[in-house]
Amino acid sequence: MTIFFSLLVLAICIILVHLLIRYRLHFLPESVAVVSLGILMGAVIKVIEFKKLANWKEEEMFRPNMFFLLLLPPIIFESGYSLHKGNFFQNIGSITLFAVFGTAISAFVVGGGIYFLGQADVISKLNMTDSFAFGSLISAVDPVATIAIFNALHVDPVLNMLVFGESILNDAVSIVLTNTAEGLTRKNMSDVSGWQTFLQALGYFLKMFFGSAALGTLTGLISALVLKHIDLRKTPSLEFGMMIIFAYLPYGLAEGISLSGIMAILFSGIVMSHYTHHNLSPVTQVLMQQTLRTVAFLCETCVFAFLGLSIFSFPHKFEISFVIWCIVLVLFGRAVNIFPLSYLLNFFRDHKITPKMMFIMWFSGLRGAIPYALSLHLDLEPMEKRQLIGTTTISIVLFTILLLGGSTMPLIRFADIRDARARRRNKKDVNLSKTEKMGNTVESEHLSELTEEEYEAHYVRRQDLKGFLWLDAKYLNPFFTRRLTQEDLHHGRIQMKTLTNKWYEEVRQGPSGSEDDEQELL
């Protein structure tokens, strides 16, 4: 019954997203709509249970293990796989600064604020490790809402990548920080000084971060070599199956040796997209891209729907003062993260981050699926403390998604008046629908068909490549990727053309096919 209920919820959410796209309600982010639908469905189920018509309490419960094993890995892998690698590697220093140091700053501000407010009897008391665990989990921002905002603003591609890359890495860093705090909670730290506790936490974090990143990178590089030297291009089904195995492999291996599977699968996705993807046939390239998008969309939609349902499905402990102070600390921690680091980066960047963009970056730090699932995964005692953390997290997530996410369109029109007028002249709407944009495009950089000579002319002989980009173009890319011959290029185009013609012939032979339809297509 649980599987049926989950599929039913997903089907209703897909219909909702379709209606948003069909009636051009582009001003409403899909995450806001799905969460609102989840709240409505939760209320209806509660009424049904109250009337004793049915009991779906077990079905509407969200299990954290299901999230971490089934739902989160495809979301994280797709995020890494869909990155624009050129802009990402050009801005890797800035992205790392925001993702690692910025997230740590936010976690310490929120965790420290909660701890000291508790000691002052302003809010409920939490010990230091529990406060830091909550500060870490609530510092994970939602990349889906963030990228929708920046796509709608038509911001500079470098700034877009800066924020999107930070939000993706931020999720993995937040999970590692939370696991670090949980690890300290399980140990008996009563006889250890504060300085020793900090050093232990730092060592655990560095091991998890760099160990998991190295494992994911190594797995991605091995997959590139395997698919370079084992030619599966003429059997796309085997090729696609191998890609799916390598996609999930680093997660299982990392979790098995007590590292972070999420961090490993993120870096594996980035590396496989940069190298392995270009060893695939054109058919598998398109199939891989669209499959990952579809699975990630279903997983994200499922989490946001159950987030709305959780308002009615979980026992809550709501303290208004705790929630308000946590919201204040979350907003303040985001500000302490964004503004100082942006001013610092402007000393070293050619593309400056303007104050207006800093404000939008701060405003777009919405919370989403990961804080919600992490709060349910925390093993805190007593149960009242766990319920307090869970309820507060749900309140903050709903506050940021519904209030801040719902205020996205007014902010865009207020902060970018000139661009809005230009869009009105062009009769184009600002579009916050990620599904519509992703479904209408195929990433051109994921369909590159360069021969040896073309690659040499495009990349190796360029004089503007520096640092890692030069090393990658000169040595790494030729070693890990297959350079196409004219015969390979010809075979790939024939394969795509054959599939297209076969599909077109089946359409023409269908019951609705007609000569008028054919002329209309032509």
TrEMBL record:
Q: Does the keyword Membrane apply?
A: yes
Classify the protein's membrane topology as the record does.
Multi-pass membrane protein
Answer whether the UniProt record assigns the keyword ATP-binding to this protein. Answer: no
User: Taxonomically, which superkingdom?
Assistant: Eukaryota
Q: Name one GO molecular function term.
A: sodium:proton antiporter activity
What Gene Ontology terms for biological process does this UniProt record contain?
Answer: regulation of intracellular pH
Pfam families with a match to the protein in the record: Na_H_Exchanger
All copies of the Cation/H+ exchanger transmembrane domain together span 12-412
GO CC annotation: Golgi membrane
- Show the stretches that span the lipid bilayer: 7-25, 31-50, 62-83, 95-118, 130-153, 204-227, 257-275, 295-314, 320-345, 357-374, 394-415
Q: Where in the cell is it found?
A: Golgi apparatus membrane
Q: What is its main location?
A: Golgi
Xref: InterPro entries: Cation/H_exchanger_CPA1 (IPR018422), Cation/H_exchanger_TM (IPR006153), NaH_exchanger (IPR004709)
**UniProt keyword list:** Antiport, Golgi apparatus, Ion transport, Membrane, Sodium, Sodium transport, Transmembrane, Transmembrane helix, Transport
NCBIfam families noted in UniProt: b_cpa1
- Which family, according to the similarity comment? Belongs to the monovalent cation:proton antiporter 1 (CPA1) transporter (TC 2.A.36) family.
Name it.
Answer: Sodium/hydrogen exchanger
